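BUG-339 | component: ligand-complex export | severity: low

The export step for dinuclear copper ion jobs runs without errors, but we want the raw record kept on the ticket for reference. Input record follows.
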Amino acid sequence: MNPSARLTGLLFATAMFALGQNVYPVANVFKPEATPADSIYNVSMLMLAICAAIFLVVAGLLLFTIVRFRRRKTDDDREPAQIYGSNRIEVAWTVIPVLIVLVLGMATARAVVEVQDKRMPADALKVTVIGHQWWWEFRYPDLGIVTANELHVPLSTAAIPAVAALRLESADVAHSFWVAQLAGKTDVIPGITNNMWIDPRQAGVFLGNCAEYCGMQHANMLLRVVVEPAGDFEKWAAAQKMDAASDPQLESARTTFLSLNCISCHTVSGTIATGTFGPNLTHLMSRATLASGMVPNTPENLRAWVKDPQAIKHGNLMPNMQLNSRELDEVVKYLSSLK
Ligand code: CUA
């Protein structure tokens, strides 16, 4: 590739990246929107500033030495003065780095204590986050809500502070829960309960992902945190608490769905479908994505997913149910009614 083509390619890639920043909500550690993310951001900035200062001093001295003591035409061949050891310089290059490490260590410890020792307010919203290969389950024990892949939490404001207290559990292997703009990553370990919290101060959708390799589709174990004003959150919660809608016009579609093996893995509350192995489908259509954030929840994608989930997310635990076209139509029709 010639240099100008390479430059054009680089410019194009940069432009696409800049464009993408505006089109998609990108996970960005430099734009914290909750207290735990602030603490981590502040430590990172301090570390970056100190490292930049060290770099400037070292590179500056190096550059100065290279220029000042370069070989000149007027040089004779005598060796310069030879110096063997200097206590003053040795003390300086020992004490200064020790002080720097001490400052960074104390700043880090302060941030860790700030985040981990925070006492949860009595009215904190409790959510149990369960990592599965490869999707997230969210349970709200006090509200009686079970959903998947899209965590809804109320917006925290100065007038009405709101904290969501997350308990992290795993159904199988080790995962890690990470939403860069809200908090640091916390591991999700089988047999152990970890805790974290968020108090988002900006409404919107925040992207996160599993940050611990957990098998073939680890990279597609995405999640979304929907932060909404208290009133909207309450509306969402009230709708999620309801049993599935049962439109009499969809009787035949519902009967087909409930006659299939789907119900041994999925729950649709208010019906005989009570499986807990896969995501709860009671309000499937309230979610914006399918397959743990992989594809938008459109009618075409829903149909393609039910028809052959392995073609979209190879290796996931939902088998191809080998539905005939009538069954496929009815299942998709029924699922589409689960608002
Ligand atoms: Cu779950 Cu990686």
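Assignee comment: Attached the raw record above. The helical segments are 3-23, 35-68, 87-116, 230-241, 251-259, 299-307, 309-312, 325-336.
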